[in-house]
């Protein structure tokens, strides 16, 4: 893994298609904290557990004025199906061309999907915390993620 954007720098901007049917641009979310949550693949066990946990604690992220933005290399139709099957509350972004995973230094090139990684971006667009898993089958807990969010409030 290389080229992971450093804490204290402005998060690299991007625009990706979302499960809303329109595209979302990262910089358009300024004014709120943003937790970018890269995950390898929809419908896999760790990813499903992680995103269902986030769904279950959704209000805790919302009350911390934080928008959770899950991103994977899955196609938008696959992500829509994933979101519907598990009644997810977040909109998912499709990095089907792998451009954002490369931009953030989290693409596992030998597997052609992104590692599990988190980037916490403050209301001004600055990365305040990042964590890239050593192994994509590992994940952070919501308690750890929320602690990082509360630390920048």
List the helices and strands and how they pair.
Layout: E1 15-17, E2 23-25, E3 33-38, H1 45-56, H2 58-63, E4 66-72, H3 76-85, E5 93-94, H4 99-103, E6 107-108, E7 113-114, E8 117-121, E9 127-132, H5 142-152
Parallel strand pairs: 3-4, 4-5
Antiparallel strand pairs: 1-2, 3-8, 6-7, 8-9
Summarize the structure.
Helix content is 29%, strand content 24%. The protein contains five helices and nine strands.
Explain what this protein looks like in three dimensions:
The protein has 153 residues and is α/β, with parallel strands linked by helices. It has one domain: Glutaredoxin (3-Layer(aba) Sandwich). Helices cover 29% and strands 24% of the residues. The chain is built from 5 helices and 9 strands. A 5-stranded mixed sheet has the order 5-4-3-8-9. A hairpin with a 5-residue loop joins β1 (15-17) and β2 (23-25). The mean pLDDT is 95.
Attribute tags:
Glutaredoxin, alpha/beta, two-stranded antiparallel sheet
């Amino acid at each position: 893994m290389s080229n992971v954007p450093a804490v204290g720098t402005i998060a690299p901007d991007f625009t990706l298609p979302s499960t809303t049917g329109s595209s979302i641009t990262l910089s358009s979310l300024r004014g709120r904290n943003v937790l970018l949550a890269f995950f390898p693949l929809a419908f896999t066990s760790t990813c499903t557990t992680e995103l269902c946990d986030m769904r279950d604690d959704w209000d805790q992220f919302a009350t911390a004025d934080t928008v959770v933005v899950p991103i994977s290399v899955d196609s938008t139709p696959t992500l829509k199906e994933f979101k519907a099957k598990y009644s997810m509350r977040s909109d998912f972004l499709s990095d089907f061309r792998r451009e954002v995973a490369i931009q953030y230094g989290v693409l596992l090139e030998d597997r052609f999907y992104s590692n599990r990684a988190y980037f916490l971006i403050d209301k001004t667009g600055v990365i305040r915390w990042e964590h890239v898993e050593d192994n994509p089958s590992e994940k952070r807990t919501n308690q750890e993620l929320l602690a990082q969010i509360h630390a920048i409030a």
